[in-house]
């Protein structure tokens, strides 16, 4: 459907209906805030009366909207909302859980009865009793600070902004282009038998685009996706990111990539931009240091972990330059929240996973710390919907800047005789222990004698999680720090998805194994030669 037809058919009815929907959910949230204390008291009192040693009560409301456009067409709008509650109990050393959408005192009391019955049924076959720490009681409200609530922005304005990106790409010669914008609001209420009563609200958005250019004579094509990250932010993230400038650059880089020589496999030095490195952090540090995965309790989505508890405080995970910290307090972080879903206050609970190269901490949720002799959780519990049991999920996990704030990506490149500068995340693969990996990217600049010299294609870098981080010998300073991340990291069975940010600075790695993806797929590749495309320092400074 073309833009003019879409606007004509939807502006009077569908757009108004969608706007009304978010007003209705906002009104429902307001009433929940008033009813929550009585509902919490009913659920928790019933759980304790039935013998639960611990119980918590959650209400969660989720609103989501995604808009998709291609060239001059609107492909579709997806909108969804959900509202419900759950009761989680610890009874006879076993967890019980029940969820539903009946938000009445009688309904939540029945959930408590079901949760206790499930916990008692599990107690007979558990291997060891679940032990949880006593958490401090918290009372209060936390709301994420955003600029513009995306749920108040008209659909017409969002469509126009996305189509403007596509028009900029088409004007530069893209054969195909698409753009998308997703937004999510979570409202959560939590009460537990420790005495906490918490209300929270946060918003996240994800703008993106992709372009494709085609050489019909050669029968080849190349693509380049946007480097814009998802953020814990409002509509201002789509408004302020300069997509209109990035889209033509993406077309130009896709065209250069299509004409570029294919990489020669071997060991090369790499300088990796934050727009690529965030995913490497996610897969090689984030998932391996989830305690449930390390203990073998979680094996979905690429297995367990090489990073077992016996390696705490002894494993040299990276070079002494590498410090990787976890938090739920970063500005605009996708995992940023005032309290995790166990009711742990996140401020002041930031921690180093890797400190000066040494592995120091796992990510933990309630009841996991005792398994490795530690005293308490570090605020890493999250449930993605009202009917999901809170499990250990990543906080924001970020590579810290180097000690010299003046170091730029240009400085890192200047220290490379023969290598590649990589921007943007692409495909990834990692083994069942989160150890051996392979990553690609969006754009691969050849480095010769400390300067960018054209572009390469068919590039993947390969290694293992420990050797890779040990190979890091250069980091950008604090001004080069950028926040990337994933809108929908998967884990668990039944699957849950969680948003998570990963900050990084440009980083340099020595003698990393490079694969040629075309050759690995059995295709013929051209010999590597000098690329004469106009790829210069000005372009680097613009998007690095």
Write the layout of secondary structure elements.
Elements: H1 3-10, H2 14-49, E1 54-70, E2 73-91, E3 94-100, H3 105-123, E4 139-143, H4 155-171, E5 176-192, E6 197-215, E7 220-225, H5 236-240, H6 243-259, E8 266-272, H7 274-286, H8 291-294, E9 324-327, E10 351-355, E11 358-359, E12 381-382, E13 391-392, E14 396-399, H9 409-414, E15 418-430, E16 436-448, E17 451-456, E18 459-464, H10 465-470, E19 472-475, E20 482-491, E21 496-504, E22 507-516, H11 517-520, H12 537-543
Parallel strand pairs: 4-6, 8-15
Antiparallel strand pairs: 1-2, 1-5, 2-3, 5-6, 6-7, 8-22, 9-10, 9-14, 10-11, 12-13, 15-16, 16-17, 16-18, 18-22, 19-22, 20-21
Helix pairs in contact: 2-3, 4-6
């Amino acid at each position: 459907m073309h833009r003019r037809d879409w606007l004509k058919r939807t502006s009077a009815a569908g757009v108004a209906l969608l706007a009304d929907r978010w007003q209705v959910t906002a009104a429902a949230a307001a009433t929940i805030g008033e009813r929550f204390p009585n509902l919490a008291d009913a659920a928790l009192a019933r759980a304790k009366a039935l013998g639960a040693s611990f119980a918590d009560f959650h209400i969660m409301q989720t609103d989501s909207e995604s808009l998709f456009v291609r060239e001059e067409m609107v492909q579709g709008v997806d909108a969804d909302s959900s509202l419900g509650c759950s009761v989680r109990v610890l009874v006879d050393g076993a967890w019980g859980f029940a969820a539903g959408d009946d938000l009445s005192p009688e309904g939540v009391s029945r959930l408590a009865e079901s949760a206790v019955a499930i916990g008692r049924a599990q107690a007979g076959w558990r291997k060891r009793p679940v032990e949880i720490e006593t958490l401090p009681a918290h009372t209060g409200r936390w709301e994420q600070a955003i600029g513009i609530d995306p749920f108040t922005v008209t659909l017409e304005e969002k469509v126009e902004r996305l189509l403007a990106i596509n028009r900029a790409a088409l004007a530069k010669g893209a054969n195909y282009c698409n753009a998308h914008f997703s937004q999510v609001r979570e409202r959560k209420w939590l009460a537990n038998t420790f005495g906490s009563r918490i209300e929270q609200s946060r918003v996240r958005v994800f703008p993106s685009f992709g372009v494709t250019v085609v050489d019909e004579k050669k029968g080849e094509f190349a693509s380049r996706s946007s480097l814009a990250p998802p953020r814990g932010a409002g509509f201002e993230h789509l408004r302020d990111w300069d997509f209109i400038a990035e889209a033509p650059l993406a077309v130009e880089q896709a065209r250069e990539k299509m004409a570029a020589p294919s990489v020669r496999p071997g060991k090369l030095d790499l300088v990796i931009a934050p727009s690529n490195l965030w995913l490497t952090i996610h897969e090689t540090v984030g998932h391996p240091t989830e305690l449930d995965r390390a203990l073998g309790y979680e094996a979905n989505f690429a297995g367990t972990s090489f990073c077992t508890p016996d390696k705490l405080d002894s494993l040299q995970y990276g070079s002494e330059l590498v410090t990787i910290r976890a938090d739920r307090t970063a500005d605009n972080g996708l995992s940023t929240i005032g309290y995790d879903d166990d009711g742990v206050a996140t401020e002041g609970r930031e921690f180093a996973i890797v400190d000066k190269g040494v592995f120091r901490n796992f990510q933990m949720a309630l009841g996991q710390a005792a398994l490795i002799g530690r005293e308490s959780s570090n605020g890493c519990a999250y449930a993605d919907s009202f009917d999901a049991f809170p499990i250990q999920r990543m906080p924001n996990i970020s590579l810290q800047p180097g000690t010299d704030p003046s170091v730029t990506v240009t400085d890192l490149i200047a220290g490379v005789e023969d290598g590649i500068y990589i921007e943007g995340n692409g495909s990834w693969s990692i083994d069942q222990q989160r150890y051996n990996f392979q990553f690609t990217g969006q754009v691969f600049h050849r480095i010769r004698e400390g300067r960018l010299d054209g572009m390469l294609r068919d590039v993947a870098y390969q290694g293992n999680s420990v050797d890779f981080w040990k190979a890091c010998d250069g980091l950008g300073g604090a001004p080069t720090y950028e926040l990337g991340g994933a809108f929908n990291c998967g884990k668990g069975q039944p699957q849950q998805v969680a948003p998570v940010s990963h900050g990084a600075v440009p980083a340099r790695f020595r003698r990393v194994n490079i694969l040629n993806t075309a050759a690995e797929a059995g295709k013929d590749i051209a010999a590597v030669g000098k690329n004469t495309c106009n790829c210069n320092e000005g372009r680097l400074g613009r998007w690095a």
